[in-house]
Amino acid sequence: MLYCSSVWSNTTFQNINRLQSIQNFASKIVTNSRKFDHVTPLLRELNWLPVKEQLFYRDSVLTFKCQNDLAPQYLTSKFAKRSNIHTRNTRTRNSLQIQLYRTAIGQRTFSYRGANIW
Question: Residues 6 or more apart from 20 whose CB is under 8 A from it?
């Protein structure tokens, strides 16, 4: 279900909610639960994160790999540290520069999401 999630995780919340419904249904099948049982205890029992949290986790891991040169160059080049942009010695010099996007589509890009996570 989460194959290549870093690629398609910029999808809309409507699609994420659909995937969450599929995960909820799958957890009920795996645990042999009834239709109207609460899903949260089932997900905890199976040690499954909700879809939104899984996408956040995968983006976090990929951003970590980009910052530590464990990812391919075409991904690491998407991020710029603030210390590379200006020479002022500030507390945020090791933070990532967040690009300005005016549209929601731009704010769903991996470079924007990763910089906000970091």
Answer: 50, 51, 52
